[in-house]
Write a structure and sequence with these properties.
- This protein is mainly alpha-helical and about 80 residues long.
- It has two domains: about 30 residues, no CATH class; about 50 residues, no CATH class.
- Helix content is about 70%, strand content about 0%.
- It contains four helices and no strands.
- The longest helix is centred in the C-terminal third of the chain and has 22 residues.
Length: about 80
């Protein structure tokens, strides 16, 4: 059994981030590995880039890529 003192020590250690939720399921779902977004989104990005090279000029692809990165960054900033 984990005592309150052990839990506080664990939370205060440098390697562990503080708890966000008291519910264990929510807490477990809030933690992701840094590679997870790459594993989820990289295949789709590669697929759509290859498809776009068949139909769009290179300059337009670069413009869309930059616009997508900027709009995603702005959206992340506004949501946080």
């Amino acid at each position: 059994m984990i005592t309150k003192e052990k839990m506080e020590r664990k939370i205060c250690s440098e390697r562990v981030t503080p708890r966000l939720f008291s519910n264990r399921l929510l807490e477990k779902c809030s933690r992701t590995h840094p590679a997870t977004p790459l594993i989820l989104y990289l295949p789709a990005v590669i697929y759509w880039l290859f498809r776009s090279f068949r139909t769009l000029p290179f300059v337009q692809i670069i413009i869309f890529l930059i616009a997508g990165i900027l709009s995603w960054t702005l959206l992340e900033y506004l949501l946080h």
